[in-house]
Amino acid sequence: MHSTGLESGLDEEHLLALGRIAYWASRTEGILREIAEYMVRGRIGPRGDVLNTAFRGAGYGELEGLVLRLVDRADDYGNPEIKYIKSGLAIAKVAMEMRNTLFHGEWVLPADGPGISHPTAVMGKRSGKEPNRSQQFDMATADNVSEVVAEAAEILAGVYLLVDGSASLEELHGDQRSTRTERGRADEQHRT
């Protein structure tokens, strides 16, 4: 394969961190798509052709809007369940916005140039609403975003279980408490 000489300028550590974020963001969006498909399927039946047409090319924001509209019109859920679903969607939205901040910017290297392997070697210059705002993205930021997006995927997986009737709200709250406890133990072991 012919190389153009184009390189990212990012070191392996940064690329791996961005890869983790991309993985969890993909899982988060995939689970949201499954929630939307399940909710629509409940209204129109198992018409795969309709589902494929309806969801082809739909992005995260479109899927989130659809799920919110379906939840508001659903008779299947009580107020606590609706709050849980909307809370899960809100958490996932913030996580995906954090992901977008890292992924949809113009990546530039610091003035020191490429090959600098200290934790703050990469700068992200946001495009869009605030095109002139620069923000430093160190490995701690990337790791934090990765954890937040992974947690969003986990929360949306719980929302899916609630929506399809596989788990009750009480079971999901118990799972969240045990997951937080397990994470706390893992963090503590990592620090020692």
Structure description:
The chain has 6 helices and 3 strands. The chain is mainly alpha-helical. It has one domain (12-105, 138-191). Strands 1-2-3 form a 3-stranded antiparallel beta sheet. The protein starts with 11 loop residues before the first helix and ends with a helix. The model is unreliable at 115-127 and 177-192 (pLDDT under 50).
Number of domains: 1
Main sheet makeup: 3 strands, antiparallel
Distance linking N and C termini: 46 Å
Helix percentage: 55-70%
Structural class: mainly alpha
Based on Cα principal axes, name the global outline: globular
Content of β-strand: 5-15%
Compile the SSE list and pairings.
Blueprint: H1 12-44, H2 48-55, H3 60-73, H4 79-103, E1 105-108, E2 123-126, E3 134-136, H5 139-163, H6 169-191
Antiparallel strand pairs: 1-2, 2-3
Question: Keyphrases for this structure?
Answer:
67% helix; 192 residues; mainly alpha; 6 helices; globular; disordered C terminus
Entry summary:
The protein is mostly helical. The protein has helices spanning 12-44, 48-55, 60-73, 79-103, 139-163, 169-191, and strands at 105-108, 123-126, 134-136.
